[in-house]
């Protein structure tokens, strides 16, 4: 250890309370800066990983962001439904390899209920084209059977064989529940980190069955029992949206144009990637605002460090004078203060980075469960290293101000006792 470094270490130890407060200020600033960046990037990845391998999403005539939100992320509601005959026509189109029908509108204790068929479990992909897997059980086979996501099972303590009652609409209240048709849980999906985890999956036929005796969202009474409904044959009349996988990517735009110009009813076909890009474009202002807030917090932290160094410099004028009297040159004093500022910033960066990973370990599962954002415990990215280097450089530059003032102080000024 060099003499200057040793002297800087002893000087910091002599002012350990002030140094610890300075380090804590920088650390909190770094936690916020890296935390905002980590949440921003991981949120993008979580949204992008929600759907994979789907070429087109088709729904009632609507904006592409709205269609993406309600069909994939279960946010909001459809402007209009799709006639079942339209689904059959396009699912059998020569360019289509597979089709997944989706029917939304009901809920269970705050979780969305989605009607679909076995194509969903066979063809739906997320992340890097990962298929859905069952943690327990199997797909539904009978009318009143349900497959639930991992978050539904964990939050409601449901297991295989548990019974549930679906409510009409998003509000799960007594008068809107389909009490005459309880569902039995037959499958629990493995966690995916997507809205699939927060969804209750039932068959399209079950969606039709539970609404027998309901008109325009109102229960007209005299609802058939579950046994009576199971003896009937149900055919879907309408669905909310459909996901299409094509045999060749070359046919994507031609089929999209054909669907958008479909004469039987107004439909919209969107590309998931393009819709996601538009969604992030709409949210870019919020991203920039968050980053600006975190940058200002870092700036405030560095100003706090500058204030601490300048205040301590007034208290250390005699110390500087003694160093000068013992042979230290002005450049030695200058280097000492620069080194102290750099060291405090570096330790603050280190503590802040460790604090970030500690928070990710503790709060990561809570954020994933509440918001569906999977915060991975990955190494710092190149951009995050750049942010840390910028903070370190700013801390060193901040140290130039008290160092320059100390450099200009004369020996006589330091030895003079002012009353």
TrEMBL record:
InterPro entries: ABC-4/HrtB_transporter, ABC3_permease_C, MacB_PCD. It holds the Pfam family FtsX. The chain crosses the membrane at residues 17-36, 289-313, 334-367, 387-407. Residues 292-410 form the ABC3 transporter permease C-terminal domain. Signal peptide: none annotated. It is a multi-pass membrane protein. Keywords: Cell membrane, Membrane, Transmembrane, Transmembrane helix. GO terms for cellular component: plasma membrane. It is found in: Cell membrane. Its main location: membrane. Residues 20-259 form the MacB-like periplasmic core domain. PANTHER family: ABC TRANSPORTER PERMEASE (PTHR43738:SF2), ABC TRANSPORTER, MEMBRANE PROTEIN (PTHR43738). This is Peptide ABC transporter permease. It comes from Vibrio galatheae.
